[in-house]
Amino acid sequence: MSQFNNKSVVITGACKGIGKGIAEHFASKGANLVIASNDKIIHETAQQINQKYSDVHVESKVVDVSSQQQVKDLYQFAFDTFSAIDISIQNAGIITIKPFDEMTHEEFNKVLHVNTIGVWLCSREAAKYMAKQGSGRIVNTSSLQGRNGFIYTPHYAASKMGVIGITQSLALELAPKNITVNSVCPGIIESDMWKYNDKVWGEMLSTPDKTYQEGELIAEWVSNIPLKRAGTPQDVANAIAFFASDETGYITGQALNVCGGMAMN
Predict the structure, then answer these.
(1) Is 197 a member of any domain?
(2) Is 160 one of the annotated active-site residues of the chain?
(3) E strand segments, the chain
(4) In which domain, by residue range, is 143 found?
């Protein structure tokens, strides 16, 4: 339980799924956490982690990462609580699936504001504290759609490509301050988001000759993954922990696929 012993970590999008898995992993390794989400369930998640890992301190806040003031308050709260911000993990993200010509400006904009601008706002606040400390780790959650776009999700693909661009740009800008910035690109991960993806994409990709029932589309895609399984939140947490560790101080500006070999680039 010593890898991140007494490190202070901020994690957004942490109430369930990948984000909760990340939070549990860091708590299991001794980190103190401030976890955030726009869902009030985040307080229950914090309570569960505190009960499971009684040697660490976990706080929670309801935060809209597209709000400058709420993000600023989040990082001020984290610093006031732990007197340091060692690691910042930007995991908050949303997706909708719809033909591009049916998508509204508001729908497109909302995804960009949460997925991309939220990463920038959180990174900006985290870097202020890390620069004063003389070091820090910033890790962003992108997606395989940050590599290649996919049908019916141009806004999501654009937002996740933007995360990789922000990661690379900030890695250059923050290197003189001894702050590394990296990202992970998850593929198919067992989560509520992928249950939604399976349902909606399955409906939209069905044809008169092929109708996808619940679970069939994901099963078809998973069968094409070299490792023959979907990923888990733990798989993503392991990759993020790699970038967040003290041992990776010479790695920055990278985007690591976490996809079982679904993409190799």
Answers:
(1) no
(2) yes
(3) 8-12, 32-37, 58-62, 87-90, 136-141, 179-186, 255-258
(4) 8-187+232-258
Catalytic annotation present for 212: no
Instruction: Please count the structural domains in the chain.
Output: 1
Q: Is residue 253 part of a domain?
A: yes
Nearest to 155, CA basis, from 208, 104, 206, 196: 104
Among 53, 75, 129, 156, the active-site one is 156
Residue 216 CB neighbours (<10 A): 14
223 occurs within a structural domain: no
DSSP 103-139: --HHHHHHHHIIIIIHHHHHHHHHHHHHHHHT-EEEE
Give per-residue pLDDT as tens, 121-141.
Answer: 999 999 999 999 999 999 999
Full-model pTM: 0.95
Specify if 198 maps to a domain. no
Res. 46 pLDDT band, cuts 50 70 90: very high
Strand partners, 222: none
Q: Which of 152, 160, 195, 250 is catalytic?
A: 160
* CATH number for the domain harbouring residue 101: 3.40.50.720
